[in-house]
């Protein structure tokens, strides 16, 4: 029994073209990668309605979508875009490096010892 204006989250994700199949949508929900109004969706049968805000984590992307309508079918992309409003922040430009991702600098030769250096150390310690 479905309440008027509400729809299962797995069907809605499928109709909105977020995923390729309903079974993938169900797996995504069960894995905890979908939030409805900041609460984790526990089951594929959780209901969404217009006005809900979904946070969807797909691979390396995070989408924040506001549900505008429930879907009737998996139609063309233009029809799917009418089901949600994309509120995701724009991705960072590809040319910019993230400041936290700057690799640490190390002095030359401060890595693992070479075979020659290990032999010298062994001789020094008397471990022939």
TrEMBL record:
<feature type="domain" description="RNA-binding S4">
    <location>
        <begin position="7"/>
        <end position="70"/>
    </location>
</feature>
<feature type="compositionally biased region" description="Basic and acidic residues">
    <location>
        <begin position="119"/>
        <end position="128"/>
    </location>
</feature>
<protein>
    <recommendedName>
        <fullName>RNA-binding S4 domain-containing protein</fullName>
    </recommendedName>
</protein>
<feature type="region of interest" description="Disordered">
    <location>
        <begin position="84"/>
        <end position="128"/>
    </location>
</feature>
<keyword id="KW-0694">RNA-binding</keyword>
<dbReference type="GO" id="GO:0003723">
    <property type="term" value="F:RNA binding"/>
</dbReference>
<dbReference type="InterPro" id="IPR036986">
    <property type="entry name" value="S4_RNA-bd_sf"/>
</dbReference>
<dbReference type="Pfam" id="PF01479">
    <property type="entry name" value="S4"/>
</dbReference>
<dbReference type="InterPro" id="IPR002942">
    <property type="entry name" value="S4_RNA-bd"/>
</dbReference>
